[in-house]
Amino acid sequence: MRFQPPSFTGKERDEETGYGYFGARYMDHELMTMWLSVDPMADKYPSISPYAYCAWNPVKLVDPDGRDWVVIFDHEKKTVTVNAKYVTKGDEAYASAEKAIKAWNNLSGKYSLMVGDEKYSVNFKLSVIDNSEAVLGDPELNVYKLVSELRNKDGEVDENIMGETNRRIINVLESEKDNYVTSSHEIGHSLGLEHFINGTKGLMEEDGGRLSCCHEITKSNVDNILHLALHPEDRNPKTKSGVGSYKVIGSSKVDIKNRFNLRLLKN
Which domain covers residue 86, as residue numbers? Predict the structure, then answer.
């Protein structure tokens, strides 16, 4: 194992980016201990830079959190849009990521969200960009990589693991690059979803629905993504799924943070 000098945070640098990785956000230790994405609570602290780590006081304060995707509630256009970007390197990874996000983007217009007594169209706007196009500080960025092998918890190469997601880092086996079941399943994890339990079938089963022959993205999947963007505190902290946030355009008569004011409908 290659030795990495510890930083003041105790975190090792991500080999792909060279930045300190905290499970959901990156930090540039050489740039005034700055987060490389906007603090999702920045609106509460307008006097502090949204890129500041611990209000520039890392000795007294701790900020381990971050966000990976954004849900935009547009009260003027009556739309709800799930936004995320997946950074790749190389043509094969780019093509694989495009297949992965297609299943999610195809959901656009298939669901509506009742916000109080008003109907909003639910859309997915996931996109793939080359690493040369990535803008540091973009809160919607995720990394999508093709890898030759994946290892289990014991550090051993495990041929049964075809993909894995660690917050905003997605690794897919090169042999699975054209299998949208594997890659779309991992996209689901990056959007905050966990594996289905209690016999529920669909893409987010642990095996992607291979045994059940059901690869459907379910209504509960979409509902959970919207809920976790509004209430990231409800996410299981033990999982490696992504963490989202939300933005609001315009105003509404109802409080969207109150789950009883929202109801997802299938069109």
Answer: 69-266
